[in-house]
Specification:
- By secondary structure, this protein is an alpha+beta fold.
- It has a single domain, classed as Nucleoside diphosphate kinase-like domain (Alpha-Beta Plaits).
- It has helices at about 15, 20-30, 45-50, 60-70, 85-90, 105-110, 125-135; strands at about 5-10, 35-40, 75-80, 115-120.
- The chain has a 4-stranded antiparallel sheet with strand order 2-3-1-4, with helices on both faces.
- The longest helix is centred in the last third of the chain and has 12 residues, at about 125-135.
- The radius of gyration is 14 Å and the shape is globular.
- The termini are far apart.
- It binds adenosine-3',5'-cyclic-monophosphate.
- Adenosine-3',5'-cyclic-monophosphate (CMP) binds near residues 55, 60 and 64.
Length: about 140
């Protein structure tokens, strides 16, 4: 039975700055994830704080929000079979040092902060994150 899902992907400032966006988009499309929506934006620190509020109790929260708002990002809606899980597999582990070979974070990530991409971690969060960037 088919299970078409949508998930949110962000190409973070470190990857946009190094002109890696096309390489990253190609990884998605070659793996059967369609890019349904795509926009380049530069968010404020307050917007980043709202987006990442699930992490507000973490010691890295302030730096994380400062970083996501430090330069342009590309936000996308990806769609495909099991899109949430497929996207997370393509991204690899949060810390590029732990990421599997040929994942986006292994190929392009610089550090746990500058890890090139964000992707929704569940269907529920995908809905919320898509709403955050595309429905207001
Ligand atoms: P992301 O998938 O965007 O979700 C939250 C981000 O916090 C994560 O990627 C990392 O870039 C960043 N981060 C920084 N420090 C940590 C940490 N110790 N554990 C998890 N995420 C971290």
């Amino acid at each position: 039975m088919s299970n078409i899902e949508q998930t949110l992907s962000i190409i973070k400032p470190d990857a946009v700055e190094r002109n890696l966006s096309e390489n990253i988009k190609n990884i998605f499309t070659k793996n059967d994830l369609k890019i349904k929506e795509n926009k380049k934006i530069h968010i404020t620190k307050d917007e980043a704080a709202e987006f990442y509020k699930v992490h507000q109790s973490k010691p890295f929260y302030n730096d994380l929000c400062a970083y996501l708002s430090s330069g342009p990002i590309i936000v996308m809606i990806l769609e495909g079979e099991n899109a949430v899980l497929v996207n997370r597999k393509l991204m690899g582990a949060t810390n590029p040092l732990d990421a599997e070979e040929n994942t986006i974070r292994k190929l392009y990530g610089i550090s746990i902060d500058k890890n090139s991409v964000h992707g929704s971690d569940s269907i529920d969060n995908a809905k919320k994150e898509i709403e955050f960037f595309f429905k207001n």
